[in-house]
Structures are given as C-alpha cells and as structure tokens.
Amino acid sequence: MTGFRALPSVDQLLTGLPALVEAHGRQAVTRHARLRLDAARAAIRDGAEGAAEAARLPHLLAADLAAAAVTGLRPILNLTGTVLHTNLGRAILAEEAIAAAKAAMAAPLALEFDLRTGGRGQRDDHLRGLLCELTGAEDATIVNNNAAAVLIALNTFGQGRDSIVSRGELIEIGGAFRMPDIMARAGTRLVEVGTTNRTHPRDYQDAISGETGVILKVHTSNYRIEGFTAEVPAPDLAAIARKTGVVMLNDLGAGSLVDLSRWGLRREPTVAEAVAEGADLVTFSGDKLLGGPQAGFVLGRRDLIARINRNPMKRAVRLDKIRIAALEATLRLYRDPDRLEDRLPVLRMLARPQAHIAAQAARLAPQVAALLPGYRVTATDCASQIGSGSLPTDTIPSAGLRITGQGGDAPDRLAAMLRDRDRPVIGRIHDGALILDLRCLDRDADLLEALA
Ligand SMILES: *Cc1c(COP(=O)(O)O)cnc(C)c1O
C-alpha cells in the first residue's frame, strides 16, 4: 500500500497548481484531478510505482485541461474543394449578415413587434417582403431548413391524403432525408407514378383522385438521370394541378435567387422562374446557393401560405431572431446583383476564376513545402464542386496543392496531422496524394499560419 501514499490528495494537488486553477477554474481542475488520481491508483494496483505516478500528475492534468479547453467548433480551413460542404457548415455568411446576427444577439429587437403601431408583429414579416420582391411570389413562410419546409407543406396539404411523386424524383439526400420517409412522417400517402427514367403527364393524370392532396415535384439536384428520359415540366404539372384543384409543390433544394450563368456557372432555374412556372408552392434552402444561415422557405399562393402558418407544426420549426436577422441582411444584398459577388462569400468563392486560383497555388507551393519537411508539394489543377447536392455532376475547374510523402499512408498521416492544428486544414485524399483545393482560401496567410 505504500504506493498509494505517494499520491497527493485532490486538495494538495490543486494547491500546488495555482496557475491551472486560475486558467480553468477550481471545478474543472478538481474534476480532472479526481479522474487522474483514480487512474494513478489503478496503475499502482497493477504494479506501477507510486512516486513515478505522482510525479506525472501535474503534467497529465495540464494536458487534460488544455485538451478540454479546445472547442471542436473552432474555425477550420475548408480546402476540400466543396464550397457548400454540409459537414463543414455549408455557407459562410456575408459581413452584413454577421453584423446583423451579432446585433440581434446583443440587444432586444422588434422581432414580433410593430414599431409603427406598437402592436404585435410577426417574425416572418421581416423576410416576407424581401422574398416576394426578389422572386415575384405572393407570399412566403420561413422555417428551420428546407427539410422542414417540405415536411410542413406536405403535412398541411397532404395529411390523410395522397401525394403524387414521379419514381424518378424519390430522392435521398445526405443525412437520412429520404422523400418517402418524410412523406410518411408528414402523414401523407405516397403515390409513385411513372418509372425511374420516364414519367409522362398521363401518369399524373391517371393517379389523381378525390384523395389527392399534393403533386410533388422534386428537383433532383444531387444526381442526374441521362439517356432515354422524360419528366413532366413544372408548368405542365402546375396546369394539371390547377385543373384538378390539388396543390403543386416544387421542391427546388438549392434554389438560387440569381442566374448563376452570369458568373460562369451552369444555368439552373432560379426561384423566380420556378414561381413564374406556376407552382402553387416552391421550397428551397437558406444555406445552399442563397449563401445565408440554415433556413427553409416556402413561397407561393397567399391562401396556401396562410394555411401553413396556421399549422401547429409551424411553431416547432420556426426561426430564431439570430437567423432571421442574418437572413434579412443576406436577402438585402440581392437587391444589388452587380455587387453580389463582392459581398456574398458563397458567390465569390464559386465565381473565382481558375487562373486566379492557379496563380495562388504556384505562389503557395514553395512556401507550404518549406513548412512540411519530408513532403513534396506541387501546384496542380483540380476540380471543385458546389456541394450540398447542388449540380453534383458539374465540377468547376480549380487549382490547388498536391502533397505526397514517403509510404502509402503518407496522405492519411498528413491529413490527420493537419486536422490536429489549432486551425485545422481539411483537404481531400485523391490518387495517393492530399489535395488542398485553394478555391475557398481567401488569404494565403491563413494557410501559412495554420501550417506554421
Ligand atoms: C438539400 C435539399 C433538401 C433539404 O434541405 P435542407 O436545407 O438541407 O434541410 C430537400 N430537398 C432537396 C431537393 C434538396 O436538395
């Protein structure tokens, strides 16, 4: 038992470590000290020497507390080449949106309060006008994310009724969002029509009955069916829905408010176009191409939006003041499309010319090589993706650094080392090398500091 006697008490340990107590607080140091003392006693029971265990305690305790003090939510460098990376938080926000969110966090604001009349207001009012102005929609409601937008729309108009979807559009997107499951939870009966590759107007017409609540069209943004294919265009579906009195819902997914071909990206239908095509309701995300915080929008007919707002589910999926403020500031930027590229980070990154990124790669390659002894660093062409299921078959020509080292596991070892930095650097492993796509690196210094 002499071994145990070499160990200090918790109090003795804390008294000897005033700097740790000062830095981390008495409670945290006490908690970690108990854990370490338990471990030391177990080691001594297994034959370790008491004095040696005691001597290691201050060092181990300091390391534990330092590790516990590091947040997993610290900023990273997204050099994966996927601009809207769901696992890395999707869109980063415009300065204007960050300032608005910060102000909303720091002081009360007229969230549901009408400053003119002093009466009650509605939180969505801050966004409705802007959304209608930018898209031509009659009305809008705003919820937690696009999954919630689809869920509440299906529940409002499809509960206990049929919802008709083409077999070519029964999508799964990452994170277990599968359209058939969402429909089940919305309480609507899924009626599949057509085939995987071809669906015709008569398929929808034949499926419509007195039980039909919704015709759902889903933008198959994360895959593409090619070859012998046919889908029913939204205007035709809208006409079928109108004639039969059911609600036509067009889930756009990424939904851009501007025509991206202006910035050299592939043309995708805009939200305004989807609204003009006659859909009763259009849903899309706030943190995909829009470039704002996580949110979901349902735009469309005023009478239908009013019914969604009366659904008790709305309260469960509504937005908080911080995101409403950030969204409002983000949407305002769209009033000036000419300056959008300078102000909206998502668009700035997507629109960066390849030559610009290639010059950055050439400039950074020798500097990065100097910081990674034992590795070979060369500038390389590569291909970025928009991400979040947006235009997945389209890549954007980009450039970056190709890093190789000794041994087959060199890229994995390097990737692990870079994840462990104060500011983790996340690349992608491809063809025996770690690729750092520089599309999303605004400042060279950020990478050099992270690696130093
Ligand atoms: C991304 C996406 C969703 C889900 O949107 P979240 O904002 O991630 O909830 C739904 N439908 C489609 C077609 C999508 O692309």
UniProtKB/TrEMBL annotation:
Membrane-spanning ranges: none
InterPro entries per the UniProt record, alphabetical: PyrdxlP-dep_Trfase (IPR015424), PyrdxlP-dep_Trfase_major (IPR015421), SelA-like (IPR018319), SelA_trans (IPR004534), SelA_trans_N_dom (IPR025862)
N6-(pyridoxal phosphate)lysine modifications at: K288
Any one GO MF annotation of this record: L-seryl-tRNA(Sec) selenium transferase activity
Cofactor: pyridoxal 5'-phosphate
Keywords assigned: Cytoplasm, Protein biosynthesis, Pyridoxal phosphate, Selenium, Transferase
Signal peptide as annotated in the record: none
Sequence ranges assigned to domain L-seryl-tRNA selenium transferase N-terminal in this UniProt record: 4-41
Gene3D superfamilies given in the database record: 3.90.1150.180, Type I PLP-dependent aspartate aminotransferase-like (Major domain) (3.40.640.10)
Location(s), subcellular: Cytoplasm
Entry superkingdom: Bacteria
Pfam family, one: Se-cys_synth_N
Family: Belongs to the SelA family.
Its biological purpose: Converts seryl-tRNA(Sec) to selenocysteinyl-tRNA(Sec) required for selenoprotein biosynthesis.
Protein name according to UniProt: L-seryl-tRNA(Sec) selenium transferase
Originating organism: Paracoccus aestuarii
Gene name tied to this protein: selA
